[in-house]
Amino acid sequence: MNARRSISSWVAWVLCPVAAVACPRCYESSSPQVLTSYYLSTFILTVLPLVVIGAIAAIGWHLARRFGADQESASTVEPATR
């Protein structure tokens, strides 16, 4: 069973580049507009993880500053006297 799995995995790995060459977004058969949209979508997908990580970091930074300000204001409050 493992031999069959290994052979089928190897065959799939060897044949994958053939499927990639048959992609409809080839450089030779595309117009300049298609290439521009291809480059734009590639750029957006490349930058998207950085934007998400930056947004999470900004939210964390904002919450940390807010929590720090709350802690600072709580420590300066004087105890109530009777």
Structure, explained:
It is a single chain. With 82 residues, the chain is mostly helical. It has one domain (2-75). 78% of the residues lie in helices and 0% in strands. The model has no long low-confidence stretch (mean pLDDT 77).
Per DSSP, what share of the residues sits in E-state strands of 2 or more residues? under 5%
Choose one word for the global shape.
elongated
Distance between the termini: 82 Å
How much is the average pLDDT?
77
Largest sheet: none
Oligomer designation: single chain
Tally of helical segments: 2
How many domains in all?
1
List SSEs in N-to-C order. HH
Task: Report the structural category.
Answer: mainly alpha
Keywords:
82 residues, mainly alpha, elongated
